[in-house]
Amino acid sequence: MTSTIARAAILAPRRSGLQHWLRSFRNMLVWNLVRLRLFLPTLILVQAFTGAGLVLGFSMLYSSISPAQVLFLGTGAVVITLVTVGIVMGPQLIAEQRLSGSYDWFASLPVPRSASAAAWTMFNVVVALPGAAAALLAVQLRFDADLHISVLIVPAVLLVLLTGTLIGYAYAHVLPNPRTISLISQVMIFVVFGFAPIAYPAENLPNWLSSAHAYLPFAHMGDVIRAGLTVGLVDNVGRSFVVLGAWALVAGMTATWAIGRRS
């Protein structure tokens, strides 16, 4: 009997280590793609139209637009398309899971929480990049913007997506009421579009609100993306990377705590 148990323990698959994490990441990514396969083409198309529409629609607010304003508008549209996927769509899906009663089942899946979050972030990359590309194409065709794409854009895009995803993950798992989650996601859209210096300089805001954005993530999202797409428009981008990294870390820890508390 003892030898049988020992043999079973040896043959049982390991549920820790890098190999288990990578396998879990792959499985969760495939699972997200499959479960949203009917919704995915529409979502990508909507993101592409959103990216182009932000550039063309916001430009109508200006009677005349300067080269700097064009760069802010184009890079701001990129940021908005990147961040709204994780900070708005993800929480709404979690709210739907709570309403349908499937939330506890998803939380019980035998995968590391970090692998699940990483898979959802990679899914967001698939969804958000067409919208970002559409925004850049629109600003280039409409205004012939003076864009200078550098290698910095790769870590900038990944960090913006990761931070937005984890912030959405955090408040969606902390808040127990799905209707509250949906309400917060709508408020997030309002804040990002209207009161965050993403598509315009922070100097346009009142001093108190501009100072608050020095510690909030949204302005820093705009700065790291602009640093990867323009030259001379952003200073001290290192601080923005640090602030976003801190937000991602805190949001990830908060989401982990909230999921663990309900497990």
Question: Short summary of the structure?
Answer:
This protein has 263 residues and is an all-alpha fold. It has one domain.
Poorly predicted runs:
1-14
Secondary structure class reads: mainly alpha
Distance between the termini: 33 Å
Q: Share of helix among residues? A: over 70%
Tally of helical runs: 11
Quantity of strands, as a count: 0
What is the radius of gyration computed over CA atoms, rounded to a whole number of angstroms? 20 Å
**What coarse outline follows from CA principal-axis ratios?**
globular
Task: Give the count of structural domains.
Answer: 1
Strand content: under 5%
Give a quick account of the main beta sheet: strands, pairing sense, barrel closure. none
Q: What is the helix/strand order?
A: HHHHHHHHHHH
Account of the 3D structure:
The structure is a single chain. Helices cover 77% and strands 0% of the residues. It is mainly α and 263 residues long. The protein has one domain (17-262). Helix 2 crosses helix 6 (113-143), helix 3 runs antiparallel to helix 4 (67-100) and helix 4 packs across helix 10 (217-229). The longest helix has 34 residues, at 67-100. The model is unreliable at 1-14 (pLDDT under 50).
